[in-house]
């Protein structure tokens, strides 16, 4: 098992280096995207700040807590984009039949389709985002257990995000449509920019358990604040495990529908 | 005129040819409205709350009005112009007896009409689901001012889009990057399509109101709400028209230079 993991890490590292080389070949484009992403983040943070200056609280959460929810959402979103950027390049492979070349390689096609090239722009933005999250978290005076639960639930959130990306890829094989499905997934997760408590029922329930944005984003943040019960934590991990198992099953089903058209 | 009518009809039918793409795009718009609606609904949960000069009815009307104004102003096929230049497809149009600007404006109109029709349906459905308090403007002069402000907004967005799309004349690899930076990030925030600009501090408001961005969404919606009247309305129109003129000249200047640099790369 360790040998397999080492091998896959080596492959990932190689693919990531290649992906970075391509991006570094277009430094000005990298700068435009980087500036765009940073500005979008700063503008939204500024909006949230001014909003809370006027409104005093958001669904009972103070300014620090509301900003923390937003930071956790961004952290999860950027981590998923950093690791799974290759998913955005999946459609041409299916449409042209080039996915055949992925299937004949002695490496998991899912691994190659999902993690075949990390995103350099996101990598640059991850460290400052972690520092900002850590700083705002420290203002919330979390307990040691709260921090551990936060990290575990954040990893669980990343697991659910992985499941979402696998489902998007699988749908891509079946329907040949990827770009909009990914954007819809991202729009759905953007409901987590704010705590799911702001949404009314039944939307709140749907966002918590059916499309588990709440479990992905709101629950880790609540764990750090110490306002989540044991039941919520257990359900989170169960949903995480179920999501990844269902997505893998769906991926295997989708592979049987691949027609190798145009190849 | 006849040829542009044909372009209009073909563009309209083309949108229906890619139904899934169009429906997904509309679903994404609905998601954005739902998030914005619930955010403001939570902030104004207590009846009688007045924040930033808005009461519950006004802010929720703002959110719903965004749906319509966005469909009218920000729906545009001209986002494809930069790839036309970057991939050399512009050559196909340069040899045809059509004005490239009029061609894309016609396609934009087709896109706007289609998006507006869907936005009206979405508006009705969401309105029936959420039943928000809605401020119905009945003053004929205000409604007329709203129409003029929206027409200026459409012109501002069209000219701005063409200026940004001209970047690939000199740097083909920056086509999407420049659109992302200006159209996706800057326009999204400073146009008022996410939040009303007047929730920001006065200095920030003054700076933003001097740019063309708030005249795309914020200004027309505020005019509809009746929040901008009298001298402020005239001042808003003046700035808006000045930006239309500046951007028109800037677009012509940039495209004259760009066409001289155009190398039909990829052809």
- The rounded Rg of chain A comes to 19 Å
Alpha-carbon Rg of chain B, integer: 19 Å
Number of domains of chain B: 1
How can the largest sheet of chain A be summarized? none
Would you count the extended β strands of chain A for me?
0
Q: Could you state the order of secondary-structure elements of chain A as H and E?
A: HHHHHHHHHHHH
State the low-pLDDT regions of chain B, or none.
none
Distance between the termini of chain B: 30 Å
N to C succession of SSEs of chain B: HHHHHHHHHHH
Helix content of chain B: over 70%
Distance between the termini of chain A: 34 Å
Mean pLDDT of chain B: 89
Shape of chain B: globular
DSSP strand tally of chain B: 0
Shape of chain A: globular
Give an overview in words:
The complex is a heterodimer of chains A (263) and B (267). Chain A is built from twelve helices and no strands. Chain A has helices at residues 2-24, 27-55, 63-84, 90-96, 99-103, 109-115, 120-139, 144-175, 179-189, 203-210, 213-225, 230-255. In chain A, helix 2 (27-55) packs parallel to helix 7 (120-139), helix 3 (63-84) crosses helix 8 and helix 8 runs parallel beside helix 12 (230-255). Chain B is built from eleven helices and no strands. Chain B has helices at 2-17, 19-43, 56-73, 81-86, 90-94, 100-130, 140-165, 175-190, 202-209, 218-225, 230-261. The two termini of chain B are 30 Å apart. The model of chain B has no long low-confidence stretch (mean pLDDT 89). Classes of the chains: A mainly alpha (263), B mainly alpha (267). Chain A binds chain B through residues 26, 28-29, 32-33, 35-36, 39-40, 43-44, 46-47, 50-51, 54-55, 58-59, 175, 177, 180-181, 183-184, 187-188, 190-191, 193-194, 198-200, 203, and chain B through 20-21, 24-25, 27-28, 31-32, 34-35, 38-39, 41-43, 51-52, 171, 173-174, 177-178, 180-181, 184-186, 188-189, 194-195, 199-201.
